[in-house]
Amino acid sequence: MAEVITISNQKGGTGKSTTTGAMAYILAEELGYKTLVIDFDPQGNETELLTGRDTEEFEDNTILNAMHDGDPRDYILAITDNLFLIPADEHLGVFPRYLCGNYYLEDENGNVLRDEYGTIQFSPEGHLILKNTLDKVKDYFDFVLIDTPPMLSDFHGNALAASDSCIIVYQTGKFGFKAVRKFLETIKASQEGSNPNLKLRGILPTMAHTQRSESKAYTHLGKEQYKDIMFDTVIKNTANISQLAIYGFDPKENKGLNKALEQYREVTTEVLRRIKNDIYFEVTEELIGRGE
Fold this sequence. Notes:
Blueprint: E1 3-8, H1 16-30, E2 35-39, H2 45-51, H3 63-69, E3 77-78, E4 83-86, H4 95-102, H5 129-134, E5 143-147, H6 154-161, E6 165-171, H7 174-192, E7 199-206, H8 213-226, H9 239-242, H10 244-247, H11 257-260, H12 262-276, H13 285-289
Parallel strand pairs: 1-5, 1-6, 2-4, 2-5, 6-7
Antiparallel strand pairs: 3-4
Helix pairs in contact: 1-2, 1-12, 6-7
């Protein structure tokens, strides 16, 4: 049965889609694991990254359709013999509205229940739509990687509920670092609600600029605050990695692919070691407070 991993942060521009795609490629093409990627972001960046095609080409063949059917098998796209994708397009953006229309809770008078912040409260089943969908195919894969949108949303609730573990990525700057704390809170909420077995595998600093003082400072601060939760690998911002968005993972089209993947090979090795040795970290109030 697959290890399902959400690779995420609610802040945009952290390199999470590139990290997800690169890790999936390495797991599948270099290490031989059957790997499924779920593009759970209406922007569809992961879909375009892995296929080299516009998201419009996948209309009616996306993760949204798979969830509506409750079965993803007709929507799995083979990229290679070992690498598979369930695409996304902009229509996935209606998913929160779908939840509101079908899974909201009511009080005894038929009024929609909201929390103290005015957010509509969903039934437990509303957080498990993606999980119940993916459960149909978990036995066919070694890994399932989920890419999520750059905002806290119902997408994250469903992704974390469907996952065995998660990896937080953060761009090495002030706002990227601050977002780690918020996402730790999201993980803790999921553990206390829909997924008590969710594990934090680690925190990965990305898009680091070795010559910029701010980037170096927030890389160091991450190591200082989160210690062994941080992966040893720091993904540095290089021209080869930036070109992945242009040339993708086809070695014939992307002559710099091998160089671009060097850092991701290192972090993939770390992830596999942590999974093999069941290394994970408790998300406590003390841990969350380290990011203040």
